[in-house]
Amino acid sequence: xxxxxxxxxxxxxxxxQKLSSDLSWSDLYLNEETxxxxxxxxxWMSHGDQLMKNPGMARHLSPGIRVLFYGPxxxxxxxxxxxxxxxxxxxxYRIDLSQMVSKWVGETEKNLSRVFDIAENKKWILFFDExxxxxxxxxxxxxxxxxxxxxxxxxxxxxxxNYPGTILMASNLRxxxxxxxxxxxxxxxxxxxxxxxxREALWRNLLKDTFPMHAQVDLAxxxxxxxxxxxxxxxxxxxxxxxxxxxxxxxxxxTWEDLHQAIQSVLRQxxxxxxxxxx
Length: 279
Hints:
Elements: E1 17-19, H1 32-52, H2 55-58, E2 65-70, H3 77-88, E3 92-96, H4 97-100, H5 107-119, E4 125-129, H6 132-135, H7 144-162, E5 166-171, H8 179-182, E6 187-190, H9 196-207, H10 219-225, H11 230-245, H12 256-269
Parallel strand pairs: 2-5, 2-6, 3-4, 4-5
Antiparallel strand pairs: 1-3
Helix pairs in contact: 5-7, 9-10, 9-11, 11-12
């Protein structure tokens, strides 16, 4: 699980994946509350270094920032992290904590230490995915495994609090996170499923410049009828394009049935049911 990066000297490869995207903020569709929280984060990334140079302010501030992104899969957490790096020209490295946690004593701390030792003072954004793999709620300490888990958490808390850059952690469920850790976040941003108006805007963005739409297709109705994430919509988009392109050229029109079939397919894959029907 080592991802080579030519910007890192040989022998110091980071156990992570560098994120990049050709997309822009205009391709990310989020609810208004999420946008507001992201704007607050961007203000820190714009001005935090200057605030830290003011002794009167710096004594009340930490040098870096720790932010939790939580919400269902496919709601834009990874893309938001990538776009923050793109805007501020800070490389973004995705660290999958589920792969870093080891059953061997001391190995988890060694893996985490390697990440921070390489990244320190490089202005990198560290994006810890599947954060609840390490920070799930703890019960009573009953055995050596529980004590070791607490040591691993304590170690990562120490390293994240001392990291001078931006740390983003992603989790599907905030309630799965240990309270002792969530208290250390300066921001907690909820990436919820998009509402109907956001879904309609995303459908229009996805389907523009592709094929003509049948007159009976009402994207506002589709958006109101199917509560899907942006990730699910993009999966459906792929299916729709293939359905339409498979027809003779003169019949390549997007129909209501195409949308319905593709959306139902992605919902079945995630064990979700839809009661939407055509009126």
